[in-house]
Specification:
218 residues; binds iron/sulfur cluster; five-stranded mixed β-sheet; Uracil-DNA Glycosylase, subunit E
């Protein structure tokens, strides 16, 4: 069993994250932030990525989805949530929430793909956090919907199970946070779609959106 990073490594990562935070704060808009992310070499993922995957969407939309990290197709295309999981997320937005993809902003905790789609490491998350924090400030959504445990624990800055975090509305810095399952998990376990729909309805209530009957999934 491999040991996690030592305290010295974590302290070094935090110091480096402080430098990234300065760079991120100096970006006045999302386009500039994306350029700075594209040049980031703070962690080893910069050596294996095809490109950074910044986001899909524009500033000042009401809803921001935050996933975990780019996968193979996202790394190739430079966009988050493409493929089957992306189609399911689009269905949640358009058939469930009755919004358009233009009404939502989609990003990930990590901007570079972990090899073989492994989980993000603690060091990688600490180093990449300032980019996401600034992204949230610039998008300025009313509701953030973290997708899956990695995103939920990261956004809420707590260590807890997905089961204990989803199903309720959290308040973070004046924003509402409504965690739900990652679409890739819903594809593996469709029985969880009903719970996801309950979470989405909570988010819709925060947004003042009327809740239609549960959509049929394709
Ligand atoms: S994952 Fe984040 S911190 Fe690591 S190189 Fe990519 S942008 Fe930089």
């Amino acid at each position: 069993m491999s040991a996690g990073p030592g305290s010295a490594a974590l302290a070094a990562a935090d110091a480096k994250a402080g430098e990234i935070r300065e760079l991120a704060l100096a970006a006045g808009d999302l386009a500039e932030l994306a350029r700075r992310v594209a040049a980031c070499t703070a962690c080893a993922l910069c050596r294996t990525r095809k490109q950074t995957v910044f986001a899909d969407g524009r500033a000042k939309v009401p809803v921001m989805f935050v996933g975990e990290a780019p996968g193979e197709q996202e790394d190739l295309q430079g966009l988050p949530f493409v493929g089957r999981a992306g189609q399911l997320l689009t269905d949640i937005v358009t058939k469930g929430m009755r919004l358009s993809r233009d009404d939502v902003y989609i990003a990930n905790v990590l901007k570079c793909r972990p090899p073989d789609n492994r989980d993000p490491t603690e060091l990688e998350k600490r180093l990449c956090t300032p980019w996401l924090d600034r992204q949230i400030e610039l998008v300025d959504p009313k509701v953030i919907i973290p997708l899956g445990r990695h995103a939920a624990t990261h956004v809420l800055k707590v260590e807890a199970s997905m089961g204990s975090l989803r199903g309720r509305v959290h308040v973070l810095g004046g924003r509402k946070v409504v965690p739900t399952y990652h679409p890739a998990y819903l594809l593996r376990d469709p029985s969880k779609k009903a719970d996801c729909w309950k979470d989405i309805q909570l988010a819709m209530a925060e947004l003042g959106l009327a809740s239609p009957p549960r959509p049929t999934s394709s």
